[in-house]
Amino acid sequence: MNKGMVYLVGSGPGDPKLLTLKGLDCIRKADVLVYDRLVSKRLLGYARTDCELIYGGKYPDHHILRQEEINQVLVAKALSGKVVTRLKGGDPFVFGRGGEEAEALVRHGIPFEVVPGVTSAVAVPAYAGIPVTHRDFTTSFAVITGHLKFDKAESSIRWDLISQAHGTLIFLMGMEKLPMIAAKLTENGRAPSTPVGLVRWGTTADQRTLTGTLENIVATARANNFSSPAVVIVGEVVNLREKLSWFERKPLFGKRVVVTRARSQASVLSEKIEGLGGEAWEFPVIEIVPPADYAPLDGAIGSLKSFTWLIFTSVNGVDFFFRRLKELGRDIRELTGIKICTIGPATKEAVEKYHLRVDLVPEEYRAEGVVELFKGRLTPADRVLLPRAEVAREVLPDALVEQGIAVEVVPVYRTIQVEAEGDQLREMLSQKLVDVVTFTSSSTVKNFVKLVGQEKLADLVAGVKIASIGPITSETARDFGLKVDIEAEKYTIEGLIQGMLQYFEQESVVSSQESE
Ligand code: SAH
User: Fold this and answer.
1) Global pTM?
2) Distance (Å, rounded) from C-alpha 223 to C-alpha 459?
3) 15, 31, 36, 435: which one is catalytic?
4) Probe ligand 1: pick from 231, 233, 247, 248, max atoms within 8 Å of CB?
5) What digits encode the pLDDT tens for the residues 164-198?
6) 58 part of the active site
7) Which CATH class is domain 256-285+418-512?
8) Is residue 94 in contact with ligand 1, taking CB distance under 6 Å?
9) Does any ligand 1 atom lie closer than 6 A to the CB of residue 344?
10) Which CATH superfamily is domain 5-118 in?
């Protein structure tokens, strides 16, 4: 029988983008994914939909038993011919028991590969603005486990050497024994004034950093209820944080933002959020698919010469229109002489990708804006083609018809509800892990509500800020009883981002005034 394959993969310290390309490959090809507690849940979304997900989280009290169980799972799954990806926090061979897992695989003759990861020992200090080495302060760093036995009989730890031999000391799993660590280092010659940094949940929205000295860090940690998982950094380099802190200073740092747009469009928004230090969680609640019936569109494409204007109200409308044009064996030459209007800049850009110029874009990026723009510009001799979503507002066609202009509305796509990750979304909402939910269209609102459940909606979104791309979307949200906290002034993704930035800037001004 074909023995499968096991990849021991380091997932990095938390920020999912710190996974290596090779690690991503291994997630994508896994039949079985066994993941740890500190692995970002956002990485699980890269697994195939038919991939079996197994949680291998360990808790201190069942450490040994669980580790044996995990080894058994890896061996059994691989022996049944599966490709198993074992996803571990940080680097698999840095206090990750990756070595033990590899030994178990060797015992059973199972082929394996190790994919190193970005270890929290180095990356977490980096995200707190602490370089582990610096020419002016230290020439070395040591990474030490905090799971140490301190009683004399068992202790083989050379505290004298640990204290003196290296510049920067980095303790993982060190929070529980912090008082002992600080005491031993001082007893063995480290100055009580040596700077200490504690960074918990580094590289994530929950990152918190405390600094002090060997003398006072224990009291500071206690006063701030500081708990694991945290990296403890001892050494002069900790002071560099005052100058070099970068992640925690980003405007959306600490904010978990849910993106509800369709998967195909989500990344534009997610990347902007992440660039500003926020954590983007993509839970696409809608999917964009072809219309139930192409006949109206095909008819319009067959008689394009009879139209004088083509109005696009969304990027999807553009893409589905041109996709169909091509499928029907035609191309943009058919559009000669037809003027093109788009509702906003993103739609304009989408049209320009097909090497066409856009004649008009309204100042206000919604149907009302187009109506305003067309007043007096069109005559009854004009004929407008409006390719758009199967279900949409009637404002635009109604107003044009009222002006005596012939309009042909053809559905070119439709949005359908996606159920896929509903459980995880509800879970995050109920644990109050979400700061903002973004809506980029009325259909995202409707399907979000359906997914979350109307009955539980109020409880689940209590405390969550709702950010909407514009007044129509906001109105839909309010119809469902949602309070809209943030509304874009310009009805674009950039406008939505600006709205969030302004909101949180004001909020931080208010909270710093309150604490004065
Ligand atoms: N293999 C991992 C370490 C596993 S031991 C690595 O290379 O990073 C688990 C310890 O790692 C935790 O107790 C904590 O000390 C540290 N750790 C891991 N991720 C962390 C994070 N995001 N923030 C702070 N500490 C983290």
Assistant:
1) 0.86
2) 32
3) 36
4) 231
5) 888 999 999 999 999 999 999 999 999 999 999 99
6) yes
7) alpha beta
8) yes
9) no
10) Tetrapyrrole methylase, N-terminal domain (3.40.1010.10)
